[in-house]
Amino acid sequence: MIEQTLKLNLIPGGVLPRVNVSQYDAGSRTINATLYNGPSLFTIPTGAQISVRGTKKDNTGFAYDCTRSGSVVTFVVTEQMAVFPGEVVAELVISKSGQILGTSNFIIWVEDSALKSDIDISETEIPAIIELAREQEANAAASAEAAAQSEENAATSENNAAQSASDASDSATAAAQSASDAADSASAAAESEDNASDSEQAAKLSEQNAKASEDILQYYVDFVIPRFVIQNNRLYISDAATGEFIVANNRLYIRNAS
After folding, report:
1. Do β-strands 61-65 and 49-55 pair in parallel, antiparallel, or remain unpaired?
2. If one looks up domain 2-111 in CATH, what number appears?
3. Torsion sign (Cα): 236, 238, 240, 244
4. Which sign does the torsion angle of CA 123, 126, 127, 131 carry?
């Protein structure tokens, strides 16, 4: 997050350079150290390994690898470098093929933290602020979940409305078909009724014709046939006096009484 610069000489002596940090800093400060050999920039040998080393106030040490670019060595302030307040003496060490070269020492000045890590926090507004932040976070999550649920419900309602409209359209189509079928049935019934009436009239006519035929047949049986006699394969009128039949020119005629 923060970059700081440092100038280090490979010839020890003089006032030690200083880098200011805060107690408990960790991974937040990058130190770019430019190396000199006397008044000139030092060219770091290719393939050399570089580390930052130091001793803390509890007489324990630290050592971390560094990166390089030209004459500049870069390292990040770690938690162990800034765990104790006050001065921490450190140096950069360059090593290659068994050869080791150290820079002049420098001071990592660790400013005392206003709140020690081993001190209990009193009842202040801090817990309340933290609790409020947590509550707001929970409310935001609940609101997001409710919004998602509302969106899902809206989609479901839209689908239901579309389905209802489709069902209504199908019902209207079915009703129209039913009305058409009813009209066809009524027309067929009317036609059947007309056919039945025609059949009834035809039956009556047939009955009248049958009665007329029966009357004619009965007339011949009662009045015509008895007046003829067959003798010697010939037909004779049995009662010519009636005047109802006339034989003329070898033909038999029925006289019209009127």
Report:
1. antiparallel
2. 2.60.40.3350
3. negative
4. positive
